[in-house]
Design brief:
Helices cover about 20% and strands about 35% of the residues. It is an alpha+beta fold. A hairpin with a 2-residue loop joins strand 2 and strand 3.
Length: about 190
């Protein structure tokens, strides 16, 4: 039977953590470089990431991380949530598990008083994330890193997905049009 698990990443059971890191190594080998040591995970604990994981018989089927932080944009403060580490075990792909999980992530975000949800994805995944509840905005750039050393999504060829949840965010929707949205996660980091 397939179970949906939810936990703060810092409390991840070790058998699940090993599988998530293994899936990350397969999905994004460039994050590991030429060395065999494991990635420090969670890599941005200050964003208090929550993991949603579909598991069957102790095998990780699919995973998504939901980081959040308060950001400043155009003079306003917003509680911003993202999606990260969206991946499905190759043995379970094309069966709807990833879509099920990002819809669960959308519900989780919605229940936690968000102003906005914003993240990036590869162009080929825009349709997938749109089915999960987000909108693609071509002229919004998500900026990680720091203000002094920005890590820009547009330079990486990524697409920005967004949902304006709160009345404040919806009333200020024009401030997000054709804008750079800064996360300020630390040098070289982007969720």
């Amino acid at each position: 039977m397939i179970e949906l698990l939810q936990f703060h990443q810092e409390n991840c059971p070790s058998y699940i953590k090993k599988q998530i890191i293994s899936l990350m190594r397969q999905e994004w080998p460039q994050a590991f470089g030429d060395h065999d040591e494991d990635l420090h995970w969670p890599d941005s604990p200050e964003t208090q990431p929550t993991s949603l994981v579909l598991v069957e018989d102790n095998i990780v089927i699919s995973h998504v991380a939901i980081p959040w932080k308060n950001i400043s944009h155009e003079g306003q403060k917003y509680k911003a949530f993202g999606l990260s580490e969206v991946m499905t075990n190759s043995s379970f792909r094309k069966q709807g598990f990833g879509l099920r999980l990002i819809k669960e992530a959308y519900s989780f975000i919605e229940k936690n008083n968000p102003d906005i949800s914003i993240f990036t994805c590869e162009p080929a995944l825009v349709h997938f994330h749109t089915k999960g509840g987000w909108e693609h905005k071509q002229n919004i750039n998500l900026i990680g890193g720091t203000r002094d050393k920005p890590f820009r999504s547009d330079i990486l060829g990524l697409c920005t997905m967004i949902n304006l949840f709160s009345a404040k965010a919806q009333n200020n929707f024009l401030s997000f049009e054709e804008a750079d949205v800064y996360l300020e996660l630390g040098e070289g980091k982007l969720w």
